[in-house]
Every structure is written in C-alpha cells, then in structure tokens.
Write a structure and sequence with these properties.
By secondary structure, the protein is an alpha/beta fold. It has one domain: 3-Layer(aba) Sandwich (Rossmann fold). It contains 8 helices and 5 strands; from the N terminus they run ααβααβαβαβαβα. The chain has a 5-stranded parallel β-sheet, with helices on both faces.
Amino acid sequence: MLVCMTTSTAGARYGFADLPALMSLMAGDEKHDLAAASTLDVLWVLYDRVLRVSPEAPGAASRDRFYLSKGHGPMAYYAVLAAKGFLSVDALPGYGRFNSVLGWHPDRTLLPGAEISSGSLGHGLPLAVGTALGLRARGLSTARVFVLIGDGELDEGSNHEAIAFAGRAGLDQLTTVVVDNSSATHGWPGGIEKRFSLEGWSAARADGRDHAALQEALTEPHPGQPRVVVAVISATATSATAASATAASATAASATAASATAASATAASATAISTVSP
C-alpha cells in the first residue's frame, strides 16, 4: 500500500468529531441533509489523509485536484473546507444567503479551495478526465485528480463516455469515488465497480464510514489504470449522521435562544435599576 500523504493543515483547529456542529451552522430549506451526510466520511478522509492540497498554496501547479461532482447538498464539503482552513468558520451561517460565498451549489469563483462549480449532475467525471489528460500533457506527473460522484449520477450518459475513455487512455492520475447509497434508478448488474473494471479501471469497494478502509482503497497503487473506489453507505448510517447534525443544530439554536433570553433579562434588570433614584 502507498504510504499516505496527508493534507497540509497548519493551524487547523477542528477534527472529524466537530463536523456535525459545523454543519449545524448552515440552515435553510435547501440543505439536502441526507446527500450531505452520505459524503461526510469520504470527504474527511480525502482532505485529512489523502489529498496533497494546502490552504496556504491553493493554486500550486503540483497540487492534487478534488472535484465534487455531487454538488447538491454541499454542507459536508463546506464544513470540511472550513475545518481544514480553506474558509472561515464564520462564513458557514451565511450558507445560501444573499452575497454569501456559500451557495446551494459550490461556485469555484467564490469558494476558496473549490476547483469546479457543480450541482448539475454528470459533469464532474468528464471534467476530471480532461484535467488528468491535461496534467499528463503538461508533464505534471505527481499531481492527481480525485472526483466524487453519486451512484444515481451514473444514470447520466456523459459519465459512461468518460469511463470508457479514461480506461483506454490509462489515466492513472485519476481516482473516482462513487458514493453508493442505493439511489440509482436502475442499479448495476454485478456492482458498480464491474462497470468500471470492464473498461480497464482498477476497482475496489469499501465501507463508506470506515476511514481506515477508505484510506487504504484510495491510496492503493494503480499504475497504468484509473482507479475507482465504491464507497457503500447504508441508509441507516446516513440517517444517523443527518440526525446528529440536526441535533447539533437544535442544540446551537437552544443555546442561542437561552443566551438571548439571558441578555434580555440582564438588560431589563439594568434598566429597572437605572430608573431608581439613589
């Protein structure tokens, strides 16, 4: 197994256990809680243990590139970027609001650390294939491209053209993570990884909540072949993660309300005292 090269996170103050609380800072009607919860562990493992990226040098030519193709429900992505120092935690409560850098879908022109704007499904993998081909043409052999897609997203035909080309071209700088939460309309006979391996990809399956298993699958050498890792997420685990974030949100809201009530009482008391003549 390839020795893991971790992300540079100088000054990082948050760990995986803090992510539900960070996600709870983002509210609104367009949260897509379950979509965000299904990607949380994969995103953390990538940014904490695999990707060679740094908030200090986000545009370095030799950096790894990460493309979030599953752009709906980006709360987990935003929380991880904040935890790793790419954006301020203070920006999280502005999620989806006017003039916020955190839209309901990521915008690379606004969001520090984001490589692509995404949300319309079926584009991330083709873009990643083109990037891997471009890195090869530029002689940047150490830079890698990782793209996260959903199993339902594989219903988009553009992905299959990308899968076929990448395998034929032997794009070994490319790794695709398919988060499989059984949301595909038709499913894949023999499993998702078989669809990739038939086209010449190196393929693996891992528990999408097991960080050690994900790290091993994502760092396994695959010379001459692109790599796919199918991260299997159970509905129960996804619901539990979403519930944790919701509970954290409720706790934060209660704390805020209590703080406001206490402040109001203090102010009222001070007013009453000031109206009494000495």
